[in-house]
């Protein structure tokens, strides 16, 4: 079968930016970055095991499509055509049958994977359908499981360690996550994702679920090596609030320290945070500096726990202008 041509042809406007993450955090970052550049690539985690994505993953043995769908939707064209297909992708069925709560976009993506026999070609096809302002890639070609070492899962034994497996289980744990790893341990990196990172001007990590959306990229050997060797500058965008369960009680400094512990060779050039989420700016600046990064504080919040796309875009514009 003849496969479609590779993804959207960039218009050469703006810097080459790669955004890493998953879920709502990555979608927020993409909604801002798409205002600054057409040369945008999203590299998406593929460890989701819940909801519609988890059901399709278990039934067909495919990558979980949900986070990929959300990233594509965030990059859709603002015209009537793009917005219509964004709504189609995001539509969820409500029924008493087996289609209940499946997202239409998940079904479409899995269909294209079966028809084309190639994950990247399928995603590029959906991107063209949306007139997407950028490209969406999986971080690896195989579905992943996240396994975490959790401390104090039993309140009566606060120092005991427990192994928790699965993205949903790790994201909702009531214990303290000490470390995460991927299963399989050495998944192959998506070649197009590696190429995009090596060719980028900027790489953006976060915001998003720290242990289940951001850090997993650093545990894929091919991506980790590309992030270490790329000439691109690297920005970490911190969350507005800790995530209940996964990073509950974490300070902004703790987020950076955990990142460094999982990728000790990774150099960071900039840390972006909202001042409302920072209790001690000097402490955060010190930890950022230890990673080689400068700290940029900008008001980027829309409410308590959502990033405002326009404010975030303005912060990224200021940051990229310092390159």
Name of the CATH first level of the largest domain? Alpha Beta
How many helix segments? 13
Low-confidence stretches: 1-11
Number of strands: 10
CA-based shape: globular
CATH topology of the largest domain: Rossmann fold
> Which whole number gives the mean pLDDT?
92
Number of domains as seen in the coordinates = 2
Biggest β-sheet: strands ordered side by side in the sheet:
3-2-1-7-8-9-10
What is the CA-atom radius of gyration, in angstroms? 19 Å
Query: Cα distance, first to last residue?
Result: 44 Å
Largest sheet properties: 7 strands, parallel
CATH superfamily of the largest domain: CofD-like domains
- Provide the helix percentage: 25-40%
**Architecture (CATH level 2) name of the largest domain:** 3-Layer(aba) Sandwich
Give the percentage of residues in beta strands. 15-25%
- By secondary-structure content and strand pairing, the structural class works out as alpha/beta
Order of helices and strands: EHEHHHHHEEEHEHEHHEHEHEH
């Amino acid at each position: 079968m003849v496969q479609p041509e590779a993804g959207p042809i960039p218009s050469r406007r703006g810097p080459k930016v790669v955004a890493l993450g998953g879920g709502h955090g990555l979608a927020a970052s993409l909604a801002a970055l798409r205002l600054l550049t057409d040369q945008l690539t999203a590299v998406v985690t593929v460890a989701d095991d819940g909801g519609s994505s988890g059901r399709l993953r278990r039934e067909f043995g495919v990558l979980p499509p949900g986070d990929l769908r959300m990233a594509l939707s965030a990059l859709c064209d603002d015209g009537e055509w793009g917005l219509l297909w964004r709504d189609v992708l995001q539509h969820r069925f409500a029924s008493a049958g087996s289609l209940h709560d499946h997202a239409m976009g998940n079904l479409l993506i899995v269909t294209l994977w079966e028809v084309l026999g190639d994950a990247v070609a399928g995603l590029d096809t959906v991107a063209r359908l949306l007139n997407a302002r950028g490209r969406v890639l999986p971080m690896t070609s195989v579905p992943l499981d996240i396994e975490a070492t959790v401390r104090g899962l039993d309140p009566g034994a606060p120092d005991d360690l427990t192994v928790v497996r699965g993205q949903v289980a790790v994201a909702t744990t009531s214990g303290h996550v000490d470390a995460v790893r991927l299963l399989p341990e050495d998944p192959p990196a998506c070649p197009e994702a590696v190429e995009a990172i090596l060719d980028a001007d900027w790489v953006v990590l976060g915001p998003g679920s720290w242990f289940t959306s951001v850090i997993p990229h650093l545990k894929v050997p091919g991506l980790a090596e590309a992030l270490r060797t790329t000439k691109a500058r690297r920005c970490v965008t911190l969350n507005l609030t800790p995530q209940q369960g996964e990073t509950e009680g974490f300070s902004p400094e703790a987020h950076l320290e955990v990142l460094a512990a999982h990728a000790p060779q990774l150099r960071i050039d900039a840390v972006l945070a909202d001042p409302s989420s920072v209790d001690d700016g000097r402490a955060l600046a010190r930890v950022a500096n230890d990673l080689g990064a400068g700290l940029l504080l900008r008001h980027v919040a829309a409410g308590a726990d959502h990033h405002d796309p326009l404010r975030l875009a303005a912060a990224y514009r200021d940051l990229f202008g310092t390159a």
